Amino acid sequence: MIGTSLSGVTFVSVPGFVGKDNFGYLQITIGYLIGYIIIAYVLLPLYYRLKLTSIYGYLQQRMGQLSYKSGAWIFIVSRLVGATARLYLVVNILQMTILDGLGVPFIVTTLVILAMIILYTYEGGVKTIVWTDTLQTSCMLLGLIICTFYMLNHLGLNIGESFTAMNEKGFTKVFGLDVNEPNYFIKQILAGAFITITMTGIDQEMMQKSLSVTRLKDSQKNMVTLGFILLGVIALFLYMGGLLHLYGMQEHVTSSGDQLFPDIALNHMPPFISIIFIVALISALFPSADGAMTALTSSLCIDVFGLKEKSWDEKKKEKFRKNVHLIVALSFLIMVIIFKIINDNSMIGLILKLAGFTYGPLLGLFAFGIFTKYEVKDKLVPYVCIAAPVISFLIDKYQEKIFGDFKIGLELLIINGMLTFIGLWLIRKK
User: For residue 205, what are the domain limits?
Assistant: First the structure.
C-alpha cells in the first residue's frame, strides 16, 4: 500500500516541488493522515458489514444500478488518468536520461514497460502484486536513504547543519498563512484529507488490498499505520528535496521541478548512485502501475460487464478477464502518449489537480449515501456526475472574476463533491 501511495511521482516530483513550495507539501500530508483515520473508522466498517468485493457495490445497494455504474465509471476514468500520469513521468525520465542516447523511441520504451507489467499481473492478480510491490517499495526507499546520505557526505553537513542551511534558503517553511493563497494551511490540510478519502477510501485499487484482510480490526490497524508511515516517508522525501536544491546550487545545476533529481543523480553524482537512482525509480514505477491495471480490470469485469452474474464456466470467465486486462494495457499506452504531448513540468501538481475534477463526483455519491437516508432518482444520477465536474471546471477557470483575490487550490475536489451532493439532494425522492 505504501508503494501504491507513493509511486514515481513522489520519488521525483515531491523533492523537485521543494524549490517552488518549500516544505509546504507536508501540510497536505498531515491532511492525508486525517483522511486515513476517517477511512479506517467510517468507510472500512461499512465495507466489511456489506461484505463487498467491489466497493461500488455499496452504491448499487444504496441508490440503484445507474448510481453503481456511474461510480464505477468515475473510478475507471480517475484511476486511468492518475496511473498513466505517474507512469508517463517515469518513462519520460528514463527516455530523456538514458534511452534517447541509445536511439530507443519513446513508444518502444512504453511498450516494453507495459509488457513487463502484463507478464507478472496476467496470471497472479492481487496476490502477485502484494509480493512484487513489497520488494519494489523496499528498493525505492533504500534508494532514497542512500541518495540522502551521499548528499550529506558530499556537502560536508550533518543532519542539524543541513536543516540550518535549508532554513537560510527558506526551504523549511511548512505552513502558508495567507488565507487568499492556494497554499493556506487550512485549505491544504482539508484538501489532503479529502484527497485521501477519495483516492484511497473510495478507490477500488487501494481498497481491494484492505478488503483482502480477513478481520476488520486488522484492516483498520493497517490503514492507520499506513497514514503515520506515509507522513514520515514524505517528510524524508521533502528533506531530500531540500538537500537536492542545496546540492544543485553547489554544483550549479540549472534543472528544476521534475527534472532536478534525475539531472543531479545521473549527471552530477558517481555512477553507483546513478544506478541506485535508476533501480529506485523503476521500483517506484511498478507498484502504482501494476495495481492500477489490475484494479481497472477487476472493476470493468465486475462493475461494468457484470462478470460475476454471468453463467459462464470458469475457463470462459478467465479468458474474458485476460482480454479486458489487455484492453486496459492498451488504454494505458494511449494515455501515456497523450501526457507526452501535454508534457507538464510538475506532474504532482497536475495529478492532484486532475483528481479534483475526476474524484469529486465519487466523493459526493458516497457522502450522500452515508450521511443522508434519502433515495434518489437513479436515472438522473449520471447527469449530476457529469454536471458537477463541468461546473467545477468553470469555477476554477473564472475564479478571479468570482472570488477576486481569494484563490482556489486543491480544495476544488471538495467543491466538486459538494456540487455532486447538492445535485443528488435536488433529485432525491420525496
Answer: 2-345
